Amino acid sequence: MNIFAVILLSSAMTCYQNGKALREDGKQVEAMQCFIEAAHSGTNDELLLGRVYSNMANMCRQANDHPTAYRVYALSAEHFAASGDTLAYAYALNNMAWEQAAMAHKDSALALIAKAVQTYPQEPLLEKVRESRAAACLFAKEYDSVLIHTTPPANDYLLTLRAQAFSYLQIDDSATYYARLLLPRTTNLFALDDLYYILTHNDSTADTEVLRALSSKRADVQKAIEARHGELTQAVQLLQQDLSKKEQAASWNTILLWAIGIVLLVWGAVVVHKQRKLHLEKSAYDTSRRNELAQNIQIVRNAENLRQELAWNEYAELCRRTDKLFQGLADSLLAQGLNEQDIRLCVLVLIGLSHKEIAEMLNCSPKSIGKLKDLTARKLGVSGGQLQEKLQNTAIL
Questions:
Q1: CA distance 378 to 391
Q2: Whether residue 135 sits in one domain with residue 42
């Protein structure tokens, strides 16, 4: 790790620790500001970033902003997955499941729970998974299923869900039993409020003095909840603003990428169009030159005296006429190192004479023509059988 990375990590860790301390002191807005600074620190420590987002998501949950909590738990899951910490990743998936349950999206919640168990199929995760399953059933108003998932032995949270399920099913004795059991030992503000509701609505035998004491305690709890909720709401608003800025930046980046892509597509289409146009023009040009070449070959072949038509006895004049008829063929062959005999042979091969006819023009044996063609073709980088095609292409270039 280089010095720059160490500095970034140290800055992010400091912000994270300060955020946790402020959160414990009840300073929710200042805590969220610290967590946001940690997230923007630029560190590449995925595990730390996962913890930062997890803390921010917990605050969203406490503020009852479940959609935002789900989004931020998802960010924590991404970082935990990148860090390789399977337990932390599984916890993040389970937290996402709980938020889906709170939004009455039971199927999505159960799918996330299954993924969490597949990732880390052992304790301590399994107890938290049990809580999420029970919560999903409660929010889906499947109270009988809640009782199945909260069968003792169970922790206080599961027993609180169990008390709520009995209350909704109007099984008052069981609801009040668990409420009386849990009320003295629970420290969760929201749980206290739920348990007080059960005792005041389901317990028909509750003592007046007990209810009066509970009412006083409930008022204190309610004030604490409202005070904390107000702070948390402001903190979540800070986070939402930060997420909105990120989304806007991502949106502009997406627009920019799309714009670049469109420009590249248009440029590519223009290039392809030009290339196609050039190809068509070249094809038309090649066709015209081939037709012209074929006509000139036919003129030479139809001449009454081929030797005279080609000025056979005068090499210089032969080359001049060859260039005029066949688009600079002699000049091109000279440039490729062919001698006088080679050029005479090439002219005869180009116009399509047989070995016997070529032999008569060159005053040699027909049997030697094949060998002469091979030798000449080799100088042009082709075989004897490809010589005529090579000469045709040279004549139309």
A1: 13
A2: yes
